[in-house]
Amino acid sequence: MTTEPNPDRTPNPPVAPDADSTSATPRSHSAEARARRARSQARSARRSGHSDAERAWLLVGILCIALVIVATSVFERLTHQGEALPGVSLAGQDISGKSATELLDTARILIAQRGSTEFAAIAGKNELSASPAALGATYDPFEAARASREAGRSNPIGAILGTFMRRGHTKNISLPVSIDNAMLAGVLDGWQRSIGDGLVDGSLIFKGTEVIEVTPKSGTSIVRPEADDAMREAIINGDTRLVRLPVGETEPVINEAATRRAARKARALLASPVTLTIRDSTLKLDPSSVASALTVRPSGRELQLVVDPQALRTSIAQSLVPLETPPKEATFAVEGSKVKVIPSATGTVVDLVPAAKAMSGGSHNVDAPVGEVAPAHDTAWAEGLHINGLVSTYTTNHPCCMARVTNIHTGAAALNGAIVEPGATFSLNNHLGQRTLDKGYVVAPAIAADLSYEDAVGGGVSQLSTTLFNAVFFGGYQDVTHTVHSLYLSRYPLGREATLNYPSIDNRFKNDTKNGVLIITSFSSTSITVSLYGDNEGRTVRAEGPNIIETIPVVVEYTEDPTLPIGTEKELFAGHTGYVVENFRIIKYADGTEKRQRFRERYQMGKQKVARNLDPAATTTTAPLVPLL
């Protein structure tokens, strides 16, 4: 009989063939899974515990570092209040820790240095340069100091980070600068014109009252506005290295239309006379007078008419004479040994600048104000010199009516009235200038380098120089430089005289007092006098000497002359005895102290030159002086 399986009955699980095998039931599988999960959770719990601790310590570390950074930043600012922070530089110069005053001083020094350094550029093969001022750059020292002081303080977070970033990288502040674009463009315009190849700007030429237009032409030159941008960037960055400017096909700055506009304005200005009103007077300026003062100059992309006020003054000078009064300088009048001041007076002058400006704009009715013009030396100046009376005077004599006398008188007239201010050094050469015929000097004998006499324009002025030197000597003023003649001349005091030659040999003295010196000259047909007026602060002078230290006897130089009768001689030059001589000047001051000054001079010996005919075979010889019979 066959038995049907019961579907509702669960069959018995198969028995493992190995008696040692463990039987697995559903309940035992579930327990094992739970155990595994428990073990995993335990391990996760242990790991989670470690991770939380690590995160906590990491957070503590970060907070500590942040606190250190903040504390350091706060400390830095507290210790540098009103000062530049560490690691800050201005235009490349370290300014760490500098106070506000020091920052301003530093900024001014750096700006002065920047202002004296030209910006250089190269366009093709052309090297160009211009000063910051010419390029329109203006630097602000106050803004530079403020920016330096505020560097690293503006942003709290940035300030904190900057405290450490500046330790390895300096924060540099550029010099604040503003740029006048018109001035910058003007320099670039000039460069463009100067290096242009074939480039011609439009312009105007004036021939009398005729206006001639110069046709503009394109060519090769600096490319704009790229060149402007390159120079502007260099100025802002303070980069004085060579700036390379682009070069290419360029249009002229002043084009044909601008040229025509300027020509129309010029022709309109010169079409009729200009009425110039000066107070109650009216002058009619004919077009030719205006045209002689009219020019044009570039102004951006236009041609500007310019009437030059100085050229206009030259053109109408004669018409201005009755309308102006020249200023009167303060002068001195000598009355015996006393001096009085002749007061100065202001003058009047027509100011043509406003009129010229109005004419440049095309106006035909213009006004010129009359202003006062002060003298260069007024009454207060003259009185402040304290030129009260005669200090010293000296006279030298000369024969009448020789050519050299004319030169003495001409030089004396030029010297008369000279003023030497306190502390100033007076140069006779500078005051007289080169002696020339057009100044009234004439040809007269002078000592040449070989000790002979030669004709020279101005010969004889050494006597004026000698007279001045002695007046200075006895006035107690400081001798700066003087030179005695090469040969002793008996008309002068031995060793106390001064020659003159332009420009190599000068006669200079210093007014070493607090008062001025007035030089007055007078002369006659046989004498020249130099007098010094002022106040030498109570000095008195006495002279000692001359003391001859050495006498250098004359030697004879013989020259054979076959044209002379045999056995005869002829004197060509008498010769001069040489000397070494000393003089002393003793100056006694108001406080009773004395100064003794030694003047040691040397005169050369001049050979006596004799021609003779003793022996046809004889040559030139020298011998001690033998008197000629």
Automatic annotation (TrEMBL):
Pfam family, one: VanW
Keywords attached to this entry: Membrane, Signal, Transmembrane, Transmembrane helix
Keyword set includes Transmembrane: yes
InterPro entries assigned: G5_dom (IPR011098), Glycopeptide_resist_protein (IPR052913), Vancomycin_resist_VanW (IPR007391), YoaR-like_PG-bd (IPR022029)
Entry keyword annotation includes Oxidoreductase: no
G5 domain boundaries: 550-598
Chain positions covered by the region annotation Disordered: 1-50
Protein name, entry field: Unannotated protein
Organism annotation: freshwater metagenome
Phylogenetic placement of the source organism: unclassified sequences, metagenomes, ecological metagenomes
